[in-house]
Amino acid sequence: MGKAFGSALIGASVAGLAFFTFASSVPAAAGQSGATRATTPAKAVPRASWDGKPDLTGVWQGASLNARAYGLAELERLYQPSAKEKMKALTEKDDPIRQCSVYGYPRRVAKSFPIQLVQGAGVMVVLDNRPHIYRYIPTDGRKHTEDVFPTYQGDSVGRWDGETLVVDVTTFNGKIWLGGVEDRPTPNSSGGWMTSDALHLVERWRLLDADTLEYQATVEDPKVLTGPWTTPKIVLKRAPIRKLEEEGHCIPADIDWVSPALR
Is residue 36, in this structure, part of any structural domain at all? Predict the structure, then answer.
């Protein structure tokens, strides 16, 4: 696939936010009467026609991890004392997602909601199930943009390390959280899992087989953490053919949306 065609494919996907993927079902292995059912072998990793790299294109179901499985017990130990005090003062209403913002990564992958990856020549786009939210990740060897404006999802650049896509993310605005107030790995845990504008994220995306995607991230934030935090390896499964929400409405948590007639 040429770059022009790849760009057109990505643009069409972003514009329409049509979350489709081909995911063939895995039939159960037929066994003899009374015999133990055989295990169906995993399907081979699909590969891109233009460079032979693993093709991550598809809809992937979120992992739906609890706080401990997500590794927040280890993260909690890394917060600086001053950051812990600020963290405790944060409530559910302060959560960016409650203000109609974005989850941010790696938190987004630990949730139950699906994402879609669309891979083209020299680029990968990550589409969210929430309308109009996506990440554009060049994989053609370019460096970070120097004059980019800080954002919730940062500036991403990717490179291939063997079979793994490594994505380096910088230039955050310091407003995303790594977890919500409800994410409590211990009974004494409290507050929001805040970050700063010094956040630096390195992600590793790897196909284990045609229907299994492994994700792991290392988080550095010298203004908030005493050292790097690496998430557990998070496994996402390929979702069946589906179309996710194209349009939607988000009402901030502090807005009273109930009609007076219904009160």
Answer: no
